[in-house]
Amino acid sequence: MNLNPKLFDADVEQAPIRQGFGEGLLEAGRADERVVAMCCDLTESTKMDAFAKEFPQRFFEMGIMEQSAASVASGMAAMGKIPFVSSYAMFSPGRNWEQIRTTICYNDRPVKIVGSHAGVSVGPDGGTHQAVEDIALTRVIPRMVVITPCDSIEAKKATLAMAKTSSPTYIRLAREKTPIITTVDTPFEIGKAQIFYRPEGVKVSVGIIACGSLVYNAIMAAHELAGEGIGAVVMNIGTVKPMDREAVIALAKECGAIVTVEEHQVAGGMGSAVAEILAVEHPTRMKFVGVQDEFGQSGTPLELIEHYGMGKDSIKEAVKSLI
Amino acid sequence: MAHLHDDKTKFLEEKALEIRTSIVESLVEAKSGHTAGPLGMADIFTAFYFHILKQDPKNPTWEERDRVVLSNGHICPVLYAVMAHAGYFPVEELKTLRKFGSRLQGHPHREWLPMLETSSGPLGQGLSQAVGMALVDRLDRGHNSNRTVYCFLGDGELNEGQVWEAAMLAGKEKLHNLVAIVDRNNIQIDGFTENIMPLEPLALKLAAFGWHVLEIDGHNMESIVDAVDQARAIFEKPSVIIAHTIPGKGVEMFQRDYKWHGNPPNKEQGANAMVELRTLGGQIMSEHE
User: Which residues of B touch A58 (CB under 8 A)?
Assistant: First the structure.
């Protein structure tokens, strides 16, 4: 998979996932002049600033109006553009869900919704700004593609890939710096899951399916478990929808038990999507690591990830409970 | 577009009557749907589809066409009727309105009827889409573009905050290629607009948002055409035409009664309406009587 050779080092490089989006958008803009971008008063924060600087004519400042912005983007797409709309995930797709459903997805327009600052790891801003419902909100809409990059490099590849499709797409980004897991050589394809960690010399008994910023925690948990003689395989499911059914089923068949890990409500999230597949195709014992029907609160990202049971040790516990 | 001469005015007025007849027929057949709005907007839609619009019904994806966004999708019986009569699809198809498998969905859906610019129904979303279209038109064609984006809105839907977000953005961007037409018929589902959520002083509000505001009698063909001409001549801001219309116009029983906003006529009411329309309210007597 050509992952970062320093992945297991204490000083592994870190970068915010949103940064990769910014780099990808700029490159997509250079490659295709149909790409336009619009932001709701969060241009620097959502990393649209480089695009805005290089392509001022193709950048539109919407002001703080996420609902209208989604529909304006639909109108732009109707005229042949590929619009990227960015805000915080709480407000887009949080506040403007029905505009996304009707004017983008029902209309079948290739608008790309960019939700930054997703998850409790937003930290001190508190529960109002911690979107832990956005995967559920977007994956339930017909036609919508949902991408949750695990690091900055994957976010860049995902951004470039989604700029080339005609599908309405949601990409979920995180605010804080997180460890770099992949390299420029790691393959990325929308709809394809990948095994990121497979222990050597240990019998595999649990599959961990993780997405977004928590893929790193999942890998670290599996690595420690391997040292304890417990075999856990980690799959990065970069696209929540359409989900890579074959890969999910194959992992469940191989391991016999599945733990899903996401910085999102357990209800309706990535784990639910995995369960929807397995319940029908290959009923498998499961545990869901994620937010358990609660709102977030202020704190440091690390404190909050631990508090809501999404840290490395919580993942290890979930794996052990299935053995 | 050319100014109206007497013959063209007469032609449009007769065409509007035909459109109203088609609307009533399709609603009776559908057994559900909205009556007041479509009849009230019949004159304006006739003026657009038979005189004002730059369009080619046989080539609906023609790049040079004007763009039409119907924001209040529930008045689609009038849109379907003018589109069918203008040649976009067979007039016979109007009888499939709201039926299973019909291209004429209860609220317009462009996936089913691709010659629509957009799907609509949930209120307040059309103006934003029209603003997006106008922004791209200007981005791609500059100020010399000869395309106009028209957005039709109901007055009740101006309750939606999103409309004012879009109005603010259009004002900021000075979108001269955007013309909004508000159907000021004073009714919405629960009653009269000024009782439900007052809009007045509407013209002043829109002007304050940076729009050039025109007010017309929405049943006068010459006023309709003149207003659009004037709107297109305004170069430094978007224009809005507040069209004062009578909901249910053309059939006494439906007129000015908000109860006809969301209900269709039954067979008997429909038959009476047809007689009234065809005799112009009793002004024309059948030679058989």
Answer: 139
Q: What's the pLDDT tens digit per position in B105-161? A: 999 999 999 999 999 999 999 999 999 999 999 999 998 899 999 999 999 999 999
**A171 and A47, same domain (yes or no):** yes
Chosen domain end from A179, A205, A227:
A179
Taking an 8 Å cut-off on Cβ atoms, the answer to whether A71 and B137 are in contact is: no
Q: Both tokens of residue B271?
A: 């038959």
Query: What ipTM is given for this predicted complex?
Result: 0.95
Kindly give the residue spans of alpha helices, DSSP state H, lying in chain B: 6-30, 36-40, 42-47, 76-86, 126-141, 161-173, 193-196, 202-208, 221-233, 267-278
Q: How far is CA A157 from CA A145, A147, A163, A187, in A?
A: 15, 11, 10, 9
**What backbone phi and psi angles, to 5 degrees, belong to B106?**
-55, -35
Does any domain span residue B288? Answer: no
Domain range enclosing A92:
14-179
Owner of token pair 């017909």: A142
Query: Residue B168 corresponds to which amino acid?
Result: M
- Work out how many domains chain A is built from and give that number: 2
Residues of A annotated as part of the active site: 66
B289 has a pLDDT exceeding 60: no
Q: Give A293: exposed, middle or buried? Use CB within 10 Å, 0-12, 13-18, 19+.
A: exposed
Regarding pTM above 0.90, the answer is yes
Per-residue pLDDT of B235-265, as tens digits, reads 999 999 999 999 999 999 999 888 899 999 9
* Cβ–Cβ < 8 Å for B171, B209: yes
Chain A residues whose C-beta is within 8 A of a chain B C-beta are 36, 57-58, 60, 62-63, 65, 67-81, 83, 98-99, 102-103, 106-108
Answer whether residue B99 is part of any domain: yes
Task: Please tell me the distance from the alpha carbon of residue B39 to that of residue A155, in angstroms, as a whole number.
Answer: 52
The domain spanning residue B179 has which CATH number?
3.40.50.970
Give the pLDDT of residue B286: 54
Q: What is the mean pLDDT of residues A256-274?
A: 98
Nearest CA in chain A to B173: A60
Same domain, A147 and A66: yes
At B72 the pLDDT is 97
